[in-house]
Amino acid sequence: MKRQLLISATLLGWSSLSLAQDDVPRIFGAGDLVIQAGYFHIDTRDSSGPVRTELRPSPLLTLLGVPEQFSSEGTGLSISSSDTPALTAKYFFTDQLSLQLEGGIPADFDIYGYGTVAPPGAAGEVVNADLGDPNTNPVASSTQWSPAMILHWNFREPEDAVRPYIGVGAVYTWFTDVELSDNAAEAINSSLGTTLALAAGTPGDTYTTASSSSSVDPVINIGTQVQVTDRWGVSLSASYLPLETTSTIKIKASDGTTLATNKIDIDIHPVIIALLVNYRF
To answer: What is the pTM of this model?
Structure first.
Protein backbone atom coordinates (compact mmCIF):
# COMPACT_ATOMS: atom_id res chain seq x y z
CA MET A 1 0.00 0.00 0.00
CA LYS A 2 2.83 2.40 0.91
CA ARG A 3 4.58 1.58 -2.37
CA GLN A 4 1.42 2.37 -4.34
CA LEU A 5 1.04 5.68 -2.49
CA LEU A 6 4.69 6.57 -3.24
CA ILE A 7 4.23 5.79 -6.95
CA SER A 8 1.01 7.82 -7.04
CA ALA A 9 2.69 10.77 -5.31
CA THR A 10 5.62 10.62 -7.75
CA LEU A 11 3.31 10.55 -10.76
CA LEU A 12 1.31 13.44 -9.30
CA GLY A 13 4.54 15.41 -8.78
CA TRP A 14 5.68 14.89 -12.39
CA SER A 15 2.21 15.85 -13.60
CA SER A 16 2.21 19.03 -11.52
CA LEU A 17 5.70 19.97 -12.78
CA SER A 18 4.62 19.42 -16.38
CA LEU A 19 1.54 21.59 -15.90
CA ALA A 20 3.65 24.28 -14.22
CA GLN A 21 6.05 24.32 -17.19
CA ASP A 22 3.13 24.53 -19.60
CA ASP A 23 1.80 27.51 -17.64
CA VAL A 24 5.06 29.49 -18.04
CA PRO A 25 4.32 32.34 -20.48
CA ARG A 26 6.30 32.39 -23.71
CA ILE A 27 7.79 35.88 -23.94
CA PHE A 28 9.35 35.75 -27.42
CA GLY A 29 10.95 33.10 -29.58
CA ALA A 30 10.77 31.37 -32.95
CA GLY A 31 8.26 32.96 -35.32
CA ASP A 32 7.79 36.16 -33.29
CA LEU A 33 8.04 39.68 -34.71
CA VAL A 34 9.13 42.43 -32.30
CA ILE A 35 8.65 46.08 -33.30
CA GLN A 36 10.71 48.66 -31.41
CA ALA A 37 10.47 52.44 -31.30
CA GLY A 38 12.52 54.95 -29.35
CA TYR A 39 15.68 57.03 -29.68
CA PHE A 40 19.24 56.69 -30.93
CA HIS A 41 21.98 58.78 -29.33
CA ILE A 42 24.88 58.94 -31.80
CA ASP A 43 28.14 59.77 -30.05
CA THR A 44 30.77 60.53 -32.69
CA ARG A 45 34.45 59.82 -32.01
CA ASP A 46 35.97 61.40 -35.08
CA SER A 47 39.38 62.22 -36.43
CA SER A 48 40.39 63.50 -39.83
CA GLY A 49 43.35 63.98 -42.08
CA PRO A 50 44.45 67.30 -43.57
CA VAL A 51 42.57 68.98 -46.39
CA ARG A 52 43.94 67.93 -49.79
CA THR A 53 43.53 70.61 -52.46
CA GLU A 54 43.67 70.28 -56.24
CA LEU A 55 43.63 73.53 -58.23
CA ARG A 56 42.70 74.14 -61.85
CA PRO A 57 45.95 74.64 -63.79
CA SER A 58 46.71 78.31 -64.31
CA PRO A 59 49.82 80.14 -65.66
CA LEU A 60 49.30 82.90 -63.07
CA LEU A 61 49.25 80.46 -60.15
CA THR A 62 52.35 78.77 -61.56
CA LEU A 63 54.05 82.18 -61.78
CA LEU A 64 53.14 82.81 -58.13
CA GLY A 65 54.64 79.47 -57.18
CA VAL A 66 51.32 77.87 -56.19
CA PRO A 67 51.37 74.09 -56.82
CA GLU A 68 48.38 72.48 -58.46
CA GLN A 69 48.11 69.99 -55.58
CA PHE A 70 48.96 70.46 -51.90
CA SER A 71 47.93 69.43 -48.40
CA SER A 72 47.26 71.89 -45.61
CA GLU A 73 48.72 70.41 -42.43
CA GLY A 74 46.84 71.15 -39.22
CA THR A 75 43.46 71.34 -40.94
CA GLY A 76 40.52 69.02 -40.40
CA LEU A 77 36.84 68.58 -39.74
CA SER A 78 34.95 67.26 -36.71
CA ILE A 79 31.37 66.02 -36.48
CA SER A 80 28.88 66.80 -33.73
CA SER A 81 26.90 64.15 -31.85
CA SER A 82 23.18 63.77 -32.54
CA ASP A 83 19.90 62.33 -31.25
CA THR A 84 17.15 60.99 -33.50
CA PRO A 85 13.96 58.87 -33.30
CA ALA A 86 14.49 55.19 -34.11
CA LEU A 87 12.36 52.37 -35.47
CA THR A 88 13.40 48.71 -35.70
CA ALA A 89 11.85 45.36 -36.54
CA LYS A 90 13.20 42.08 -35.16
CA TYR A 91 12.14 38.65 -36.43
CA PHE A 92 13.01 35.41 -34.61
CA PHE A 93 13.94 32.52 -36.91
CA THR A 94 14.58 30.32 -33.88
CA ASP A 95 14.35 30.89 -30.13
CA GLN A 96 17.93 32.25 -30.21
CA LEU A 97 18.57 33.53 -33.75
CA SER A 98 16.91 36.73 -34.97
CA LEU A 99 17.36 39.37 -37.66
CA GLN A 100 16.91 43.06 -36.87
CA LEU A 101 16.32 45.86 -39.36
CA GLU A 102 17.09 49.37 -38.08
CA GLY A 103 15.91 52.68 -39.45
CA GLY A 104 14.13 55.80 -38.29
CA ILE A 105 14.42 59.50 -38.98
CA PRO A 106 17.91 60.32 -40.35
CA ALA A 107 20.20 62.20 -37.99
CA ASP A 108 21.36 65.79 -38.57
CA PHE A 109 24.96 66.76 -37.82
CA ASP A 110 26.95 69.97 -37.61
CA ILE A 111 30.44 69.91 -39.13
CA TYR A 112 33.17 72.06 -37.58
CA GLY A 113 36.46 73.03 -39.18
CA TYR A 114 39.89 73.92 -37.86
CA GLY A 115 43.18 75.08 -39.38
CA THR A 116 43.90 77.16 -42.47
CA VAL A 117 43.75 75.87 -46.04
CA ALA A 118 46.69 77.48 -47.84
CA PRO A 119 49.37 76.55 -50.39
CA PRO A 120 52.97 76.39 -49.17
CA GLY A 121 55.23 79.41 -49.42
CA ALA A 122 54.56 83.11 -49.61
CA ALA A 123 51.44 82.62 -51.78
CA GLY A 124 49.71 81.07 -48.77
CA GLU A 125 49.60 84.51 -47.17
CA VAL A 126 47.30 85.69 -49.97
CA VAL A 127 45.44 82.56 -51.11
CA ASN A 128 43.97 80.91 -48.00
CA ALA A 129 40.82 80.08 -46.05
CA ASP A 130 40.63 79.84 -42.25
CA LEU A 131 38.38 76.87 -41.41
CA GLY A 132 38.74 77.55 -37.69
CA ASP A 133 37.30 81.06 -37.79
CA PRO A 134 34.57 81.10 -35.08
CA ASN A 135 32.49 83.37 -37.31
CA THR A 136 32.18 80.60 -39.91
CA ASN A 137 31.69 77.57 -37.62
CA PRO A 138 29.96 75.24 -37.97
CA VAL A 139 31.26 75.34 -41.53
CA ALA A 140 28.64 72.87 -42.78
CA SER A 141 25.76 70.58 -41.87
CA SER A 142 24.52 67.26 -43.23
CA THR A 143 21.88 64.58 -42.84
CA GLN A 144 23.06 60.99 -42.35
CA TRP A 145 21.06 57.95 -43.48
CA SER A 146 22.21 54.65 -41.96
CA PRO A 147 19.79 51.72 -42.36
CA ALA A 148 21.23 48.59 -40.76
CA MET A 149 20.70 44.84 -40.87
CA ILE A 150 21.94 42.96 -37.79
CA LEU A 151 21.93 39.23 -37.03
CA HIS A 152 21.43 38.63 -33.30
CA TRP A 153 22.09 35.71 -31.01
CA ASN A 154 19.66 35.96 -28.09
CA PHE A 155 20.76 34.30 -24.87
CA ARG A 156 18.57 32.43 -22.37
CA GLU A 157 15.14 30.98 -23.17
CA PRO A 158 11.86 32.30 -24.66
CA GLU A 159 10.24 32.18 -21.21
CA ASP A 160 12.86 34.47 -19.65
CA ALA A 161 11.78 38.09 -19.27
CA VAL A 162 15.38 39.35 -19.47
CA ARG A 163 17.33 38.29 -22.56
CA PRO A 164 20.78 39.69 -23.39
CA TYR A 165 21.88 39.54 -27.03
CA ILE A 166 24.87 40.17 -29.24
CA GLY A 167 24.87 40.84 -32.96
CA VAL A 168 26.90 41.64 -36.05
CA GLY A 169 25.69 43.13 -39.30
CA ALA A 170 26.15 45.77 -41.95
CA VAL A 171 25.18 49.43 -42.34
CA TYR A 172 24.81 51.36 -45.58
CA THR A 173 25.51 55.05 -44.94
CA TRP A 174 24.99 58.01 -47.21
CA PHE A 175 24.65 61.75 -46.68
CA THR A 176 22.16 64.25 -48.04
CA ASP A 177 21.71 68.01 -47.62
CA VAL A 178 25.46 68.53 -47.21
CA GLU A 179 25.63 72.32 -47.18
CA LEU A 180 28.18 74.92 -46.21
CA SER A 181 26.97 77.58 -43.82
CA ASP A 182 26.35 80.98 -45.39
CA ASN A 183 29.27 82.55 -43.50
CA ALA A 184 31.67 79.75 -44.43
CA ALA A 185 30.68 79.83 -48.10
CA GLU A 186 31.07 83.62 -48.21
CA ALA A 187 34.48 83.46 -46.53
CA ILE A 188 35.77 80.73 -48.86
CA ASN A 189 34.50 82.49 -51.97
CA SER A 190 35.94 85.87 -50.97
CA SER A 191 39.32 84.58 -49.74
CA LEU A 192 39.95 81.80 -52.26
CA GLY A 193 37.29 81.94 -54.94
CA THR A 194 37.90 85.46 -56.20
CA THR A 195 41.67 84.92 -56.53
CA LEU A 196 41.29 81.52 -58.22
CA ALA A 197 38.66 82.85 -60.65
CA LEU A 198 40.93 85.73 -61.64
CA ALA A 199 43.88 83.37 -62.12
CA ALA A 200 41.77 81.04 -64.27
CA GLY A 201 40.63 83.88 -66.54
CA THR A 202 37.03 83.72 -65.33
CA PRO A 203 36.79 86.74 -63.01
CA GLY A 204 33.59 87.30 -61.10
CA ASP A 205 31.54 85.68 -58.39
CA THR A 206 32.21 82.09 -57.35
CA TYR A 207 30.14 79.52 -55.44
CA THR A 208 30.80 76.37 -53.44
CA THR A 209 29.35 72.86 -53.33
CA ALA A 210 29.79 70.17 -50.68
CA SER A 211 29.27 66.41 -50.58
CA SER A 212 30.25 63.31 -48.59
CA SER A 213 30.90 59.79 -49.88
CA SER A 214 28.70 56.79 -49.06
CA SER A 215 29.95 53.48 -47.66
CA VAL A 216 29.00 50.00 -46.44
CA ASP A 217 30.46 49.24 -43.02
CA PRO A 218 30.25 46.48 -40.40
CA VAL A 219 28.41 47.08 -37.11
CA ILE A 220 28.71 45.34 -33.73
CA ASN A 221 25.71 45.44 -31.39
CA ILE A 222 25.15 44.29 -27.79
CA GLY A 223 22.11 44.81 -25.61
CA THR A 224 19.42 43.48 -23.30
CA GLN A 225 15.73 43.09 -23.95
CA VAL A 226 13.36 43.17 -20.94
CA GLN A 227 9.73 42.12 -21.30
CA VAL A 228 7.37 43.81 -18.84
CA THR A 229 4.35 41.84 -20.08
CA ASP A 230 3.98 39.11 -22.69
CA ARG A 231 3.58 41.85 -25.32
CA TRP A 232 5.35 44.97 -24.09
CA GLY A 233 8.93 45.52 -23.04
CA VAL A 234 12.00 47.75 -23.30
CA SER A 235 15.51 47.28 -24.62
CA LEU A 236 18.83 49.05 -24.22
CA SER A 237 21.71 48.49 -26.62
CA ALA A 238 25.03 49.90 -27.81
CA SER A 239 26.45 49.66 -31.32
CA TYR A 240 29.88 50.44 -32.71
CA LEU A 241 30.27 51.49 -36.33
CA PRO A 242 33.75 52.06 -37.90
CA LEU A 243 32.35 54.62 -40.33
CA GLU A 244 34.65 56.52 -42.69
CA THR A 245 33.73 59.12 -45.27
CA THR A 246 35.42 61.58 -47.61
CA SER A 247 34.02 65.11 -47.64
CA THR A 248 34.52 67.21 -50.76
CA ILE A 249 34.21 71.00 -51.08
CA LYS A 250 34.44 72.47 -54.55
CA ILE A 251 34.90 76.10 -55.53
CA LYS A 252 33.35 76.91 -58.91
CA ALA A 253 33.35 79.91 -61.22
CA SER A 254 30.07 81.49 -62.25
CA ASP A 255 30.13 79.48 -65.49
CA GLY A 256 30.42 76.18 -63.56
CA THR A 257 34.17 75.67 -64.07
CA THR A 258 35.73 73.89 -61.09
CA LEU A 259 38.50 76.09 -59.73
CA ALA A 260 39.47 74.03 -56.68
CA THR A 261 38.58 70.65 -55.20
CA ASN A 262 39.21 70.16 -51.47
CA LYS A 263 38.94 66.66 -50.01
CA ILE A 264 39.27 65.43 -46.46
CA ASP A 265 38.99 61.90 -45.03
CA ILE A 266 37.02 61.65 -41.78
CA ASP A 267 36.93 58.66 -39.42
CA ILE A 268 33.63 59.13 -37.55
CA HIS A 269 33.48 55.81 -35.62
CA PRO A 270 30.24 56.52 -33.72
CA VAL A 271 28.95 54.65 -30.67
CA ILE A 272 25.16 54.47 -30.91
CA ILE A 273 23.09 54.07 -27.75
CA ALA A 274 19.49 52.93 -28.34
CA LEU A 275 16.63 53.04 -25.82
CA LEU A 276 13.56 51.37 -27.31
CA VAL A 277 10.04 50.29 -26.36
CA ASN A 278 9.14 46.81 -27.69
CA TYR A 279 5.88 45.26 -28.83
CA ARG A 280 5.70 41.57 -29.71
CA PHE A 281 3.24 40.40 -32.38
So the answer is: 0.81
